[in-house]
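Record 1 of the preview.
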Amino acid sequence: MSSKGISAYKVRGIMRKAASYRMDIGKIFDENIYSIIRNICSSSQMPDEYLITMLLPAIGHFVNGSQMRTNTGTPTNISFFTTIIGYPSVNKSSATDAVLKACLVIEKNIGVKPEESRVNCSATVESLLSELKNTSPKLIQIWDEAVTLLQSFGLYKQGGAAYDRSIMCTLYNSSSVVKRQTKSGNIVVENPILNIAAAAHPADIFSSLCNESDDDGLMARFLFSAPEPCIPLSGEITNLNIDNPSLAHLLFVIYCFNSTEHNDTRRATVGDGDDDHIIYTYSEDAQMIRAAYGIDQGLGSILGKAKVQVSRLAGALHATTLASAVFDQLIDHNSLPGYGDTTPQVFEMLKRVVKDFKQTYKWTVVSEDTAKAAVLLMNYYVTQKKTYTNRK
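->
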C-alpha cells in the first residue's frame, strides 16, 4: 500500500473534514454499553470512534458464526473488516490493545491454548487460509499497523494462484467454501469467518480508496473512522472506574449468547451440517426500516456494500443490547463484575445468568430501535468514506 499519488496537503484536508463528523454513541448504545465505552475512552484519552470501530470485529468474532437475516431474507455473517485512521501518537494503539487484551482474557477462560489462539497474525493469504483450515474456521486479526496486512494484498503469486485481494473479498462474504488452488497444492476452507480490526496512517487508506476498482471492492468491505484526536484538559482526564465491567465481560456475555452448546433456539444448518449457528431476524417494525444510499458510478464499489453492512451492524448492536440486559439483571442483584474481576468464578456466573436469560426470553429478534441505531451508525461510516473520496 503506497501513499504515492496523494499529497500531504490533501491528506490533511481530508482528515480535518472527516474529524468534523462525529459518532453519536448516546443514540447508538444504551446506558450500560455507553458507560463501558466512555469509561475506557475517557481514562485512555482516545476518541470513542476508535474503540467502537475496533470493537465491531471483536463482537463479530464472539457471535461465533451467528448470522443476521437481512430485509431481503438473505442471511449474512455478522463479521467486519474495520480500520481506524490517524497520525502517529494519537492513541490508536490504546484501542487495539484494549480489544486484543479482552480477546485473550476470554480465550483463557474458555480453555483455548495460546498455541491454538483464534487471534491470528498471518501476513500472507496462504498462511491465513492454512490457519482457518487447521486452527479454526473463525479467526480475528488485530493489526496495530494495517500496512503490514495491506501490503500483502494484490500480489499475484506465480503457479496459477488467484489474486490475494479476491480471496480476502471472498472471506468477507458469507461463503460456505473458500478454495485456494496453486501448482504446489490446494486448500479448501469450509464456512470461514474472518474479522479484521486494524489501525492505519491516513495516506495509505485515502489513496487506496481513491483508486479503488469497481471490479475489486476490497476496500468497500472495510468500515473506516478518522476522528479528531482526543486532547483533554488536565481536569477532564478521568481515572478508570474499576466498578464498571470491562470489554472482556461484554464480549464473554456475547459469546455465551451465541454458543450453540445445548442451545435450544432456532438454528440454520450450513454446509455438511457440522456447523450450526443462530439466525437473528428483524422484528416486524424493524423490517420497515430502509437505509438508502445515493450511489454514483464512482462510488458504486464503496457504497454498494452499505445495505448489507447495516444488517451486520444491526446484529452486532443487538448482541450488545442482550449483554446490557444481562448487566441490568446483575445490577439488580448487586453482582455486576468490576473491571478487573476476571476470575473463573466470575465467568461461570456470567454463563449461568446468560443461560437463564435465554430460557426465559425471546432473544433472537432485533428491535426497531436497534435497527434505527444500526442505520445511524452506518450513516457515520458512509459519511467517512464519502469524505475520503471527496464526494458529497
